[in-house]
Amino acid sequence: MKLRKAVLTGGGRATRLYPITTTINKHLLPLANKPMIFHAIEKAVEAGVTEIFINTNPGETELQKYIGDGGHWGVKITFFEQTGGPQGVAHIAKVAERFIGRDPFLFYFSDNVLLGNLKDMVDEFHRNRYDLMLAFSRVDNPEHFGIPLFDDQGKIQEILEKPQNPPNNLAQTGIILYGPGVFFEAFNNIRKSARGEYEISDVHSYLIKNNYRVGHREITGWWKDTGQPRDILVANQLLLEHRPETEYTLRGDIHPNAKLSGQVQVGTGSQIGPGVTIRGPVIIAENCLLEDCAIGPHVTIGAGTEIRRAKIEHSIILDNCEIDADMYLKDSLIGKKARLVRKPELDSGRQMIMGDKTIVEV
């Protein structure tokens, strides 16, 4: 039975990314100027998936508006709420049981960013008739992840959830393949953890200890869990660097005195004025205005944003922002409609309207 279904995460509050996620679903934050969850959808489609089920927060409307019914990717997309409130990521897939039935499926955490495709992993899953296939990646902070415990023969004994003393630095990624019916049998035989959640690691440990066929592979390219602002910026940088050269196009109005180097994309209706220096990789969306500023490398700028005088590197600027200040910004994440301007008379004081957990350096 071929794998044709996938469950993608689209809910959660992303409190570690406050304040920017107070007004935008984390999964819609742009990476290489494309909503994060779009990258996950594309990976699922490349793997042969034709039906995708995405969980949402209660009352969510943004995801549905941005993603649609899946026709853009040639697949069918259905949205569902995680009933009963947040109870762990394993509970997300359990709620999708009515869609999955006894079919094999891909469980993809949409805030995981992967370079390369999943085809080889899916092919190995089918070839060896695994009940469960896990993907691991080496990380610097394994105590924050589910970590496999191996025996002397290299066989997985169990998955340790966020161990204080990790036995290795292989992190369980949010890219998982399940055979027919096995996830739901395992889920029905676990209990909530001490933190009140159904742990995905407990599901996997149940399958391992009950002698199901479990395979694994190490992601040797690149994988990132975008749980922190720094992770978002690193993912953006690497996606920009690995983006096909043919996707960098110049469609706006570029002044002859502007200096562009490297891979640069300028959207329709954008104006790149005199005194502008852009060092790629950089993506500038539609209807932006740049004057007398230096941009890049590793910067994405959302539609309708205006930038004057600033120098910006390694940053993500969302839609309809205004930055008009003779200052240097680096490693920054600027939300929609934000205004950053410098007053000429410093003695008159600065006005600031700042949300919870805002970070400002002046």
TrEMBL record:
Molecular function in Gene Ontology: transferase activity
Keyword entries, A-Z: Transferase
Positions of the Mannose-1-phosphate guanyltransferase C-terminal domain: 281-356
Keyword Transferase: yes
SUPFAM superfamilies (UniProt xref): Nucleotide-diphospho-sugar transferases
Residues in Nucleotidyl transferase domain copies: 5-240
UniProt entry tagged with the keyword Membrane: no
InterPro entries per the UniProt record, alphabetical: G1P_thy_trans_l, GMPPB_C, NTP_transferase_dom, Nucleotide-diphossugar_trans
One Pfam short name: GMPPB_C
PANTHER family xref list: GLUCOSE-1-PHOSPHATE THYMIDYLTRANSFERASE, THYMIDYLYLTRANSFERASE
Protein name: Glucose-1-phosphate thymidyltransferase
Organism: Candidatus Magasanikbacteria bacterium GW2011_GWA2_56_11
Lineage: Bacteria, Candidatus Magasanikiibacteriota
